Amino acid sequence: MRRGAKWIVGAFTAARAGNAKPPSLTRLGGVPTLTTHADAVAAATDLAAALAPGAAERDRNGAEVVPTEALARLDSSGLLGVTIPVEDGGPGLGPSTLAEVTRLIAAADPAIAQVPQAHYLLVDILAVHGPEIRKHLYADVLAGRRIGNALAERGGKHAQDLRTRIAGGRLNGVKYYTTGALTSAWIAVSAIGEDGRLVLAFVPRDAAGVAVDTDWDVIGQRATISGTATFTDVPVEFALDYTRAYEVPQQLGARAQLVHAAIEVGIAGGALADARAYLRDKARPSTEAVRASFSRAVEDPHVMYRYGRLATRVRAAEALLKDAARTLDAIGLVPPSASSAAEGSLAVAAAKAFGSEVAVEAGSELFALCGTSSAASKYDLDRHWRNARTHSVHDPVDWKYHHLAAWELSDLQPPNHGQL
Question: Residue 16 has what pLDDT?
Fold first, then answer.
């Protein structure tokens, strides 16, 4: 088990070279115990309020400045442990809580909301497949120490064509899209074991041979800093057989995708909220509206129509997200059958597909509503569209609609993987 880490206040200016040591964070006081849905929602509401004022600056900074203060607030909030089972010392809160917590944070800053996305998946994986490992890692999680991920690679023929290997108890490989890894306490790394099966290894972030770079240069979700991680002869103490997780009916993928859906729905809500604030406080009526005797932008009937239509679609996305979360609540972490697993996956697929479309729409429609002046760089309102567009292509929306149709029209169950 990882011994006490040193947590230091202060911003960390990222170097472009891979850094051997993680940037320092500060846990802001003791980590609270959140035992109920209401506790978690209140903590997320407080965190969102603290994050919102700095969201535009963090977006502008991108990978140049690691958002250590914002991440310290996240890690100290108690939210990292909300899904840890009761028997393991956690509150055992379910998908409805996780979806709402994520949505609230994403409405304020979706980059910070995405940082623990894989963390929650990994907590679930440990609950089902890591009985010997979780007693070591869950204590750290409850103390506010996050698990980052290093699952994706570049250069292979497909997403599962991995080159990272574990041999002789040593891990070697290069990963990309390592959201959360830069500032985590642990990193979960997918690799091929000596028997050819997929292994999930958990290594300390500050272990010798671990280097995480800040080579993250994208148009949106910039503050996630999901760059390259390199593992060179890293000793592996904790590992599990990851292949078996998808050899049986599972809800790991659905629960992971639920968080992604909540991020999209949160982005849509955040864009709508900023459009409302701008229209009420800053927007001037168009020349045509003035000629029609409207003195305020919010009186323009076309603005009212566009805003009303967008607000309705955002509310519909929120409703789909809640429905998907309730479906997963009812099924549980270990589904009783393949058909129930399919039901959960498809409910989340609908919420993710529609939520992604609405988020992109809201980020663009904001400017049609608010007018030319809203495009001034000082407002950074374009971050909503950039964040939505970047995050929405995490996995193909078209395939989600395809599998929904296949189920409705031909009773074909969707594939049993983590991207649906």
Answer: 32
Q: Indicate the residue type of 309.
A: R
The closest of 126, 129, 131, 175 to 147, measured between CA atoms, is: 126
Q: Domain of residue 255: give its range.
A: 248-410
- In the Cβ-directed half-sphere of 363, how many Cα atoms lie within 13 Å? 27
**Residue 165 bridge partners (DSSP):** 172, 192
Looking at the structure, tell me whether residues 203 and 309 fall in a common domain. no
pLDDT tens track for 334-370:
999 999 999 999 999 999 999 999 999 999 999 999 9
Query: Concatenated DSSP letters for 81-133?
Result: GTTS-GGGTS----HHHHHHHHHHHHHH-HHHHHTTHHHHHHHHHHHHH-HHH
- What's the average model confidence in pLDDT over 148-172? 92
Yes or no: say if 167 and 196 are a contact pair by the CB < 8 Å rule. no
Asked whether residue 162 falls in the same domain as residue 184, the answer is yes
Number of domains in the chain: 2
Which secondary structure element, helix H or strand E, spans residue 51, and what is its range? helix 37-51
Collapsed DSSP state (helix, strand, coil) of residue 231: strand
Other C-beta atoms closer than 10 Å to the C-beta of 95 total 27
Question: DSSP secondary structure string, 328-380?
Answer: HHHH-SS-SSHHHHHHHHHHHHHHHHHHHHHHHHHHHHHHHHH-GGGG-TTT-
Angstrom distance (rounded) from CA 395 to CA 261: 11
State pTM to two decimals: 0.93
Q: Mind giving me the DSSP string for 15-36?
A: PSSPBSSPPP----SPPPP--S
| Rounded-to-integer distance, Cα 420 and Cα 402, Å | 11
N residues, the chain:
420
- pLDDT tens digits, residue range 271-281? 999 999 999 99
Give yes or no for a contact between 144 and 75, defined as CB atoms under 8 angstroms apart: yes
What DSSP letter does each residue of 267-294 carry, written as one string? Answer: HHHHHHHHHHHHHHHTPPPPHHHHHTT-
Together in a domain, 321 and 393: yes
